[in-house]
Protein backbone atom coordinates (compact mmCIF):
# COMPACT_ATOMS: atom_id res chain seq x y z
CA UNK A 1 0.00 0.00 0.00
CA UNK A 2 1.19 3.52 -0.72
CA UNK A 3 0.02 7.07 -1.35
CA UNK A 4 0.12 6.73 -5.13
CA UNK A 5 -3.02 7.68 -7.06
CA UNK A 6 -1.55 6.38 -10.34
CA UNK A 7 -4.41 5.47 -12.71
CA UNK A 8 -7.05 7.11 -10.52
CA UNK A 9 -9.44 9.90 -11.50
CA UNK A 10 -10.49 12.65 -9.12
CA UNK A 11 -13.02 15.48 -9.00
CA UNK A 12 -12.43 18.45 -6.68
CA UNK A 13 -15.34 20.88 -6.42
CA UNK A 14 -14.22 24.50 -6.00
CA UNK A 15 -10.72 23.67 -7.23
CA UNK A 16 -9.88 27.05 -8.73
CA UNK A 17 -8.58 28.70 -5.56
CA UNK A 18 -7.45 28.16 -1.98
CA UNK A 19 -7.67 24.73 -0.38
CA UNK A 20 -9.36 23.13 -3.42
CA UNK A 21 -6.55 24.29 -5.69
CA UNK A 22 -3.93 22.86 -3.32
CA UNK A 23 -5.81 19.54 -3.16
CA UNK A 24 -6.12 19.33 -6.96
CA UNK A 25 -2.40 19.99 -7.47
CA UNK A 26 -1.24 17.60 -4.72
CA UNK A 27 -3.43 14.74 -5.98
CA UNK A 28 -2.09 15.34 -9.52
CA UNK A 29 1.46 15.35 -8.11
CA UNK A 30 0.72 11.87 -6.81
CA UNK A 31 -0.43 10.50 -10.15
CA UNK A 32 -4.16 11.26 -10.42
CA UNK A 33 -6.04 12.72 -13.37
CA UNK A 34 -7.89 15.66 -11.86
CA UNK A 35 -11.05 17.53 -12.80
CA UNK A 36 -12.03 20.67 -10.93
CA UNK A 37 -15.22 22.67 -10.86
CA UNK A 38 -15.50 26.38 -10.12
CA UNK A 39 -18.21 29.02 -10.01
CA UNK A 40 -16.78 32.16 -11.63
CA UNK A 41 -12.93 32.29 -11.57
CA UNK A 42 -12.34 31.25 -15.18
CA UNK A 43 -8.68 32.37 -15.35
CA UNK A 44 -7.74 30.81 -12.01
CA UNK A 45 -9.40 27.54 -13.03
CA UNK A 46 -7.60 27.52 -16.39
CA UNK A 47 -4.30 28.02 -14.58
CA UNK A 48 -4.98 25.01 -12.31
CA UNK A 49 -5.86 22.93 -15.39
CA UNK A 50 -2.59 23.94 -17.09
CA UNK A 51 -0.54 23.15 -13.99
CA UNK A 52 -2.09 19.68 -13.75
CA UNK A 53 -1.38 19.02 -17.43
CA UNK A 54 2.24 20.15 -16.95
CA UNK A 55 2.55 17.36 -14.37
CA UNK A 56 1.64 14.90 -17.17
CA UNK A 57 -1.88 14.22 -15.91
CA UNK A 58 -5.24 14.65 -17.64
CA UNK A 59 -7.18 17.67 -16.42
CA UNK A 60 -10.57 19.32 -16.73
CA UNK A 61 -11.83 22.68 -15.44
CA UNK A 62 -15.63 22.75 -15.55
CA UNK A 63 -17.70 25.82 -14.71
CA UNK A 64 -20.55 24.46 -12.60
CA UNK A 65 -22.47 25.96 -9.70
CA UNK A 66 -22.28 23.31 -6.96
CA UNK A 67 -25.72 24.37 -5.73
CA UNK A 68 -27.35 23.12 -8.93
CA UNK A 69 -28.52 19.49 -8.71
CA UNK A 70 -28.76 18.86 -12.47
CA UNK A 71 -25.38 20.41 -13.14
CA UNK A 72 -23.73 17.99 -10.65
CA UNK A 73 -25.20 15.08 -12.61
CA UNK A 74 -23.89 16.59 -15.86
CA UNK A 75 -20.37 17.08 -14.43
CA UNK A 76 -20.19 13.47 -13.23
CA UNK A 77 -21.53 12.20 -16.57
CA UNK A 78 -18.91 14.20 -18.48
CA UNK A 79 -16.07 12.83 -16.35
CA UNK A 80 -17.22 9.21 -16.33
CA UNK A 81 -17.86 9.26 -20.10
CA UNK A 82 -14.50 10.84 -20.97
CA UNK A 83 -12.36 9.12 -18.31
CA UNK A 84 -14.48 5.94 -17.90
CA UNK A 85 -14.66 6.18 -14.12
CA UNK A 86 -14.38 8.42 -11.08
CA UNK A 87 -12.39 7.04 -8.13
CA UNK A 88 -12.26 10.02 -5.78
CA UNK A 89 -14.66 12.92 -5.10
CA UNK A 90 -13.55 15.84 -2.95
CA UNK A 91 -16.49 18.07 -1.97
CA UNK A 92 -14.60 21.27 -1.21
CA UNK A 93 -16.66 24.18 -2.65
CA UNK A 94 -17.77 26.44 0.16
CA UNK A 95 -18.56 30.01 1.17
CA UNK A 96 -19.10 32.11 4.29
CA UNK A 97 -21.79 34.78 4.80
CA UNK A 98 -21.13 35.67 8.43
CA UNK A 99 -23.56 37.53 10.68
CA UNK A 100 -24.98 37.34 14.18
CA UNK A 101 -28.33 35.51 14.32
CA UNK A 102 -30.22 38.72 15.06
CA UNK A 103 -28.89 40.29 11.87
CA UNK A 104 -28.64 37.24 9.61
CA UNK A 105 -30.86 37.42 6.56
CA UNK A 106 -32.74 34.49 5.09
CA UNK A 107 -30.59 34.91 1.98
CA UNK A 108 -27.35 34.58 3.99
CA UNK A 109 -28.68 31.42 5.64
CA UNK A 110 -29.88 29.86 2.37
CA UNK A 111 -26.74 30.70 0.36
CA UNK A 112 -24.45 29.03 2.87
CA UNK A 113 -26.63 25.95 3.43
CA UNK A 114 -27.09 25.50 -0.33
CA UNK A 115 -23.43 25.98 -1.23
CA UNK A 116 -21.86 24.07 1.65
CA UNK A 117 -24.40 21.32 2.33
CA UNK A 118 -26.80 20.81 -0.57
CA UNK A 119 -23.81 20.69 -2.93
CA UNK A 120 -22.49 17.70 -1.00
CA UNK A 121 -25.78 15.85 -1.49
CA UNK A 122 -25.77 16.82 -5.19
CA UNK A 123 -22.30 15.44 -5.94
CA UNK A 124 -22.31 12.48 -3.53
CA UNK A 125 -25.60 11.28 -5.02
CA UNK A 126 -24.37 11.76 -8.57
CA UNK A 127 -21.21 9.67 -7.99
CA UNK A 128 -22.91 6.82 -6.10
CA UNK A 129 -23.92 4.76 -9.16
CA UNK A 130 -20.66 5.28 -11.13
CA UNK A 131 -18.65 4.36 -8.02
CA UNK A 132 -20.80 1.25 -7.47
CA UNK A 133 -20.16 0.22 -11.09
CA UNK A 134 -16.46 0.86 -10.47
CA UNK A 135 -16.60 -1.38 -7.36
CA UNK A 136 -15.42 1.33 -5.00
CA UNK A 137 -14.48 4.91 -4.40
CA UNK A 138 -13.43 7.46 -1.83
CA UNK A 139 -15.38 10.62 -1.00
CA UNK A 140 -13.80 13.34 1.10
CA UNK A 141 -16.00 16.17 2.37
CA UNK A 142 -14.41 19.38 3.61
CA UNK A 143 -16.00 20.55 6.85
CA UNK A 144 -14.50 22.98 9.39
CA UNK A 145 -13.69 23.07 13.10
CA UNK A 146 -16.59 25.52 13.26
CA UNK A 147 -18.89 22.56 12.48
CA UNK A 148 -17.52 20.81 15.57
CA UNK A 149 -17.25 23.70 18.05
CA UNK A 150 -19.67 26.33 16.70
CA UNK A 151 -18.70 30.00 16.34
CA UNK A 152 -20.54 33.21 17.16
CA UNK A 153 -21.43 34.97 13.92
CA UNK A 154 -21.27 31.79 11.86
CA UNK A 155 -24.45 29.86 12.73
CA UNK A 156 -25.24 29.27 9.05
CA UNK A 157 -21.69 28.08 8.31
CA UNK A 158 -21.53 25.93 11.48
CA UNK A 159 -24.87 24.31 10.63
CA UNK A 160 -23.70 23.48 7.12
CA UNK A 161 -20.36 22.11 8.27
CA UNK A 162 -21.88 20.07 11.14
CA UNK A 163 -24.62 18.86 8.80
CA UNK A 164 -22.15 17.43 6.35
CA UNK A 165 -20.53 15.34 9.10
CA UNK A 166 -23.87 13.62 9.78
CA UNK A 167 -24.47 13.25 6.06
CA UNK A 168 -21.05 11.66 5.57
CA UNK A 169 -21.56 9.09 8.34
CA UNK A 170 -24.95 8.10 6.92
CA UNK A 171 -23.55 7.87 3.40
CA UNK A 172 -20.59 5.82 4.66
CA UNK A 173 -22.98 3.35 6.33
CA UNK A 174 -25.19 3.08 3.23
CA UNK A 175 -22.38 2.47 0.78
CA UNK A 176 -19.68 0.64 2.76
CA UNK A 177 -20.86 -2.70 1.40
CA UNK A 178 -20.08 -1.39 -2.11
CA UNK A 179 -16.53 -0.50 -1.05
CA UNK A 180 -17.28 3.23 -1.17
CA UNK A 181 -15.70 5.13 1.72
CA UNK A 182 -16.74 8.61 2.87
CA UNK A 183 -14.76 10.73 5.28
CA UNK A 184 -14.52 14.32 6.48
CA UNK A 185 -11.57 16.67 6.81
CA UNK A 186 -12.20 19.55 9.23
CA UNK A 187 -9.63 22.32 8.79
CA UNK A 188 -8.99 24.99 11.38
CA UNK A 189 -7.71 28.39 10.38
CA UNK A 190 -6.03 28.01 6.97
CA UNK A 191 -4.65 31.03 5.12
CA UNK A 192 -6.68 31.53 1.89
CA UNK A 193 -8.75 34.27 0.25
CA UNK A 194 -11.69 33.17 2.45
CA UNK A 195 -9.74 34.06 5.60
CA UNK A 196 -8.31 37.26 4.03
CA UNK A 197 -11.73 38.73 4.79
CA UNK A 198 -11.21 38.37 8.58
CA UNK A 199 -9.94 41.41 10.48
CA UNK A 200 -6.55 41.49 12.25
CA UNK A 201 -8.00 41.18 15.78
CA UNK A 202 -9.97 38.05 14.88
CA UNK A 203 -6.91 36.53 13.21
CA UNK A 204 -4.75 37.17 16.30
CA UNK A 205 -7.29 35.57 18.62
CA UNK A 206 -7.59 32.55 16.30
CA UNK A 207 -3.81 32.08 16.49
CA UNK A 208 -3.91 32.38 20.28
CA UNK A 209 -6.57 29.64 20.42
CA UNK A 210 -4.47 27.31 18.26
CA UNK A 211 -2.12 25.14 20.36
CA UNK A 212 0.38 24.93 17.49
CA UNK A 213 0.32 28.74 17.49
CA UNK A 214 0.03 29.43 13.79
CA UNK A 215 -2.33 29.35 10.85
CA UNK A 216 -2.33 26.28 8.66
CA UNK A 217 -1.36 26.05 5.02
CA UNK A 218 -3.64 24.73 2.26
CA UNK A 219 -1.07 22.01 1.53
CA UNK A 220 -1.45 20.73 5.09
CA UNK A 221 -5.13 20.08 4.37
CA UNK A 222 -4.32 18.64 0.94
CA UNK A 223 -1.94 16.05 2.40
CA UNK A 224 -4.72 14.70 4.67
CA UNK A 225 -7.06 14.52 1.67
CA UNK A 226 -4.35 12.64 -0.23
CA UNK A 227 -4.14 10.09 2.59
CA UNK A 228 -7.94 9.59 2.60
CA UNK A 229 -7.99 9.31 -1.20
CA UNK A 230 -5.25 6.67 -1.22
CA UNK A 231 -5.24 2.97 -0.36
CA UNK A 232 -3.34 3.78 2.84
CA UNK A 233 -6.70 4.69 4.41
CA UNK A 234 -8.66 1.75 2.98
CA UNK A 235 -10.04 0.67 6.40
CA UNK A 236 -11.17 4.21 7.36
CA UNK A 237 -14.75 5.34 6.68
CA UNK A 238 -17.18 7.72 8.39
CA UNK A 239 -14.27 9.41 10.15
CA UNK A 240 -13.64 13.13 10.70
CA UNK A 241 -10.01 14.22 10.77
CA UNK A 242 -9.29 17.69 12.15
CA UNK A 243 -6.41 19.58 10.52
CA UNK A 244 -6.44 22.50 12.89
CA UNK A 245 -3.22 22.74 14.89
CA UNK A 246 -5.17 21.35 17.87
CA UNK A 247 -7.72 24.18 17.87
CA UNK A 248 -10.89 22.12 18.45
CA UNK A 249 -9.57 19.43 20.80
P1 LIG B 1 -11.83 30.06 -1.18
O1 LIG B 1 -12.86 31.13 -1.04
O2 LIG B 1 -10.40 30.42 -1.25
O3 LIG B 1 -12.19 29.14 -2.45
C1 LIG B 1 -13.50 28.66 -2.60
C2 LIG B 1 -13.58 27.77 -3.80
O4 LIG B 1 -14.93 27.25 -3.88
C3 LIG B 1 -13.33 28.51 -5.10
O5 LIG B 1 -12.70 27.64 -6.01
C4 LIG B 1 -14.75 28.85 -5.57
O6 LIG B 1 -14.87 29.01 -6.98
C5 LIG B 1 -15.49 27.61 -5.13
N1 LIG B 1 -16.91 27.83 -5.01
C6 LIG B 1 -17.57 28.64 -4.14
N2 LIG B 1 -18.88 28.56 -4.35
C7 LIG B 1 -19.07 27.69 -5.36
C8 LIG B 1 -20.21 27.18 -6.04
N3 LIG B 1 -21.45 27.58 -5.74
N4 LIG B 1 -20.02 26.29 -7.04
C9 LIG B 1 -18.79 25.88 -7.39
N5 LIG B 1 -17.67 26.31 -6.78
C10 LIG B 1 -17.82 27.21 -5.79
O7 LIG B 1 -12.12 29.06 0.05
P2 LIG B 1 -11.11 28.12 0.87
O8 LIG B 1 -10.15 27.48 -0.05
O9 LIG B 1 -10.64 28.84 2.06
O10 LIG B 1 -12.15 27.02 1.41
C11 LIG B 1 -12.34 25.76 0.76
C12 LIG B 1 -13.18 24.88 1.66
O11 LIG B 1 -12.53 24.71 2.92
C13 LIG B 1 -14.57 25.46 1.97
O12 LIG B 1 -15.53 24.44 2.02
C14 LIG B 1 -14.38 26.08 3.34
O13 LIG B 1 -15.57 26.17 4.05
C15 LIG B 1 -13.41 25.08 3.95
N6 LIG B 1 -12.65 25.61 5.08
C16 LIG B 1 -11.77 26.65 4.93
C17 LIG B 1 -11.06 27.12 6.00
C18 LIG B 1 -10.08 28.23 5.90
O14 LIG B 1 -9.55 28.62 6.95
N7 LIG B 1 -9.76 28.74 4.73
C19 LIG B 1 -11.24 26.53 7.34
C20 LIG B 1 -12.17 25.45 7.38
C21 LIG B 1 -12.83 25.01 6.29
P3 LIG B 1 -14.60 30.46 -7.69
O15 LIG B 1 -13.10 30.62 -7.69
O16 LIG B 1 -15.14 30.34 -9.07
O17 LIG B 1 -15.31 31.47 -6.84
From TrEMBL:
Quaternary structure and partners: Homotetramer.
NCBIfam families, alphabetized: 3oxo_ACP_reduc, PRK05653.1-4, PRK07231.1, PRK12826.1-2
Protein name: 3-oxoacyl-[acyl-carrier-protein] reductase
Native source organism of the sequence: Fodinibius halophilus
Active-site residues, as the UniProt record annotates them: 157
InterPro entries with a match to the protein in the record: 3oxo_ACP_reduc (IPR011284), KR_dom (IPR057326), NAD(P)-bd_dom_sf (IPR036291), Sc_DH/Rdtase_CS (IPR020904), SDR (IPR050259), SDR_fam (IPR002347)
Residue stretches making up the Ketoreductase domain: 8-193
Organism classification: Bacteria, Pseudomonadati, Balneolota, Balneolia, Balneolales
Keyword terms of this UniProt record: Fatty acid biosynthesis, Fatty acid metabolism, Lipid biosynthesis, Lipid metabolism, NADP, Oxidoreductase
Encoding gene per record: fabG
Catalyzed reactions per annotation: a (3R)-hydroxyacyl-[ACP] + NADP(+) = a 3-oxoacyl-[ACP] + NADPH + H(+)
